[in-house]
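Illustration 12: Tetratricopeptide repeat protein.
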Amino acid sequence: MTPFMQLGQAAVQQKNFDEAVAWFTKAAEDSPKDPQTKACLGQSLCWLGKREEGLAHLHQSGQLILKKSRKSRDIGLALDMVDQLQYWNDFPGALEICKQAVQINPGQLRGYQLLALTYSRLNQKKSALAAGRQALKLAPNSAVLSILLATLEAADGLSQEARQRLEKVLQNPLLTAEERFRANKELARILDKLGEYDRVFANLHAAAEIAPRLPEVKRQDAGLVPKMLEHYKTEFDRELLGRWANTDFPADQPAPVFLLGFMRTGTTLTQEVLAAHPEIFVADETDLIVSVAKELNRLSNGQGSLAEQLRKLDLAGVLHLRAFYWHRARALYGDKTGTRLLLDKTTMNTIDLGLINCIFPDAKLVFLLRDPRDVCLSCFMQTMLPTPSTVQLLSWESTARFYAQVMDWWLTIRSKLTMSFIEFRYEDAVFNFEPAFRKVFDFLDLDWNPAVAEFHKKAAGKYIASPSFSQVAQPLYSSSVGRWRHYRAEYAAILPELQTYIDEFGYEN
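Figure caption equivalent — predicted structure in token form:
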């Protein structure tokens, strides 16, 4: 390893990515065809938020690795690069490298597994299924691959085959907790598709009993978000939220449009419809607002709560944070945004509504609503990566409780917002598509464009960050509306948590 590479690695250890980029750039100048140097530079740029630039270096590294792999037939490093590109949500780039790697060495199990996952995230269902089958051929006794293949079969409409596969998996007494958890979740979803409603919750509750034992779940602070919301309800008052409401902000720091709600309320559907409009660019599930919160904390030397930090902020600080937001957005997307309206869809930024309103009091907000009973059912059925928010959705009762906590926050803050907002119902989008979305486009001061009705065609084959990525790549369907009625008996335990919101949002009992 060269001295420049050593210095770069040391900077990475210190999480000083600016310095790491400087050293890795020097190393790349000395060794322009070294794949490790290119990979380290690309990763460091991505960590800095310069995703477009970083991915270009990772792609170059991947091609250099493949060149070596063709001689050695060792595709391990190439598949590591696929992992990296998937981490940065570059699934098209990951697919390009993974397909070549599998061609070089078709006997490598991990290659087909990654290929199946990559195709799946790009909504290429047939190709995903073929890769999943090939992976299982190479390891026919793998529970992980059996569960993966069942998921791919279900996505391609082969629900009976998927059910039989998962029922067989669950008979294995040697399953790990994670395997048993995932198999139960997937089987519940498949039984729901098949209309075998009396069996669904047995599997969901079985998964819920296992969930607390999962290492990734144990690592999360389950009390973090509920405590945060309780503090926010008292700390974000009208005075704080309205502090910068009458400010004329610079033209190069415009306010984005924010698309928020609770998980599984239709934010991804709405995002894809709006993204089909030529004058809108969607930032899909990003860390833009989280990064702004971290920058505010840095400016405040880590002193005080978020609301206290905002109270002490002057106008120069607000302008700095707006500029910081746009710097991060442009680093993530390069020139792709152009002159289009930026739509920031990060669903659970609902929690950060106070911060958003303070920094962007001139923003517009589209807030999604859906029948609370359907929301909770969909959340409880979904398998999500563990975070301080998603670990609230691992049991039936905690799902309802968390929904109530977040929506209580919304009801508390919405009358104090200086942002213009519109509440948009998922059910209206499904049953009354054009009139409903015309209201949204009017709210955004955009003309109606008939192309938005073909949103599912644009969604097919592209990466979408939300767990509902496969559902928005097909025409609208109404089967998810009122799905809770199949499980009426299960709601006795959670209706006390939900009734306030069922009534407030005008849903029938």
